[in-house]
Predict the 3D structure of the following.
Amino acid sequence: MSNKVVTGRRVRVGVIGAGVWAIQSHLPTLMKRSNEIEFVGLCRLGRDEARKTAERFGFQKFSEDYREIIDMELDYVIVSSPASFHFQHAKAALESGAHVLLEKPVTLRTTDCKELINLSTKNKLNVLIPLGWNYMPIFLRAQELIEEVGIGEVENIDLQMASSIKDLLLGDSMDSSGNPELSVDPKTYGNASIAGGGYLNSGFTHALGYFFGLFNLEPQTVFAKLFYDKKPGIETHAALTVSFKNGALASMSASAFHVATQMRHRVRLSAYGSKGHLEVSIDGDWIRFWTPKGLVELDLGQGTQRYHCEGPPIALLDLVQGKKVCNNSALGVGLRSVAVVENAHLSNERRELVRVP
């Protein structure tokens, strides 16, 4: 339980890194509860863009310096800056006493993520990762089945994800409108020193977050081969073998491909346990759950589980207000995801199996 619960007044909201995801998703979602929030401070690079974005959403102040925003006694901070700045910005927000909506990857190193966990625990503050699927029926129904019926001890996992963001990773924007508010800066994802890598961080962390949200398994070893297409340090494909401390094994596949019209993220999870197994197709909108008692089939409706991220910002707002809601994407989920990705890069570099510290 947080020691900073906001009641009897509006929640003071700030944003560090007001780029496309904040503008198109997080801020419009929070505006649906506009009578409960106050947009206080906004930070983004480019003074004109910062001013326009602040005016659009009604922020009281804008700046290119995140420290000026942090000093505004905020309750709720959105950190959606480039990945290499997540640790620095989230740490500052937590030290200021704010709850944090922290974009994935939460950090690039497990040591940094552990520091954020310790800091948030010490200050009794909530950190929530905006992993949209973790707040949709495709996750919630699977979670119910695991908790109510279970598959026993998890023994083997197959996890696959593919997304049409290869062009973005190779240096092209995802938007051609000319509107800087809607255009992703290619350097954010196509520069390894800023992004911390390619598709594993930018896309596959969604699949990892989904998996680790359902199963609290601790990675023990990682062996990985990464495929680089034209840009050093920006992988577009990856094949991983991961072992866990309980003895379970996982095969993981990650792929970024060229833009295809109406193509959804392809995400598939199979988890085999000692008493049953779970299969999920997020792009197929279905869940299959096998136990000795029989098969449970859940078809959630074609297209209903197409990705959106409305759940996480609202969940954190509820937590800030002291409401009893579940954090399905807490920092522990992020930590295990970072451990897999960080050590996958290390394994590929060393060409050997790497033990997770």
Q: What stands out?
A: The mean pLDDT is 94. Residues 11-130 form a domain with the Rossmann fold fold (CATH 3.40.50.720). The CA atoms of residues 154 and 215 lie 8 Å apart. The chain has two domains: 11-130, 133-307+328-355.
